[in-house]
Amino acid sequence: MFLVFKEQFVKAYSKKLLIITIKAHTKHIP
After folding, report:
1. Does some domain include residue 30?
2. Alpha-carbon dihedral of residues 20, 23, 29, 30, nearest 10 degrees?
3. DSSP alpha helices (H): ranges in the chain?
4. What's the rounded Cα separation, in Å, for the pair 30 and 25?
5. pLDDT digit string (tens) for 4-30?
6. Contacts of 3 (CB under 8 A, 6+ apart)
7. Residues 6+ apart with CB under 8 A from 8
8. Which of 7, 8, 9, 30 has a C-alpha 20 to 30 A away from that of 16?
9. Taking the CB of residue 6, how many other CB atoms lie within 10 A of it?
10. Is residue 13 included in any domain, yes or no?
11. Alpha-carbon distance 4 to 18, whole Å?
């Protein structure tokens, strides 16, 4: 049960991190 939750959390976190990274990159583009 905990392992499944951890896996979902990691997936959600990596997705959030990806969005933040994309936003940061698009900020530099004029």
Report:
1. no
2. -140
3. 2-28
4. 10
5. 889 999 999 999 999 999 998 888 766
6. none
7. none
8. 30
9. 10
10. yes
11. 21
Q: How far apart are CA 18 and CA 30, in angstroms?
A: 20
Q: What's residue 17's pLDDT? A: 95
- Token pair 């990596």 is at which residue? 14
Query: 18 lies in a domain?
Result: yes
Looking at residue 30, what is its pLDDT? Answer: 65
What is the Cα–Cα distance from 8 to 27, expressed in whole angstroms?
29
In the block, tokens 């900020």 appear at 27
Structural domain count of the chain: 1
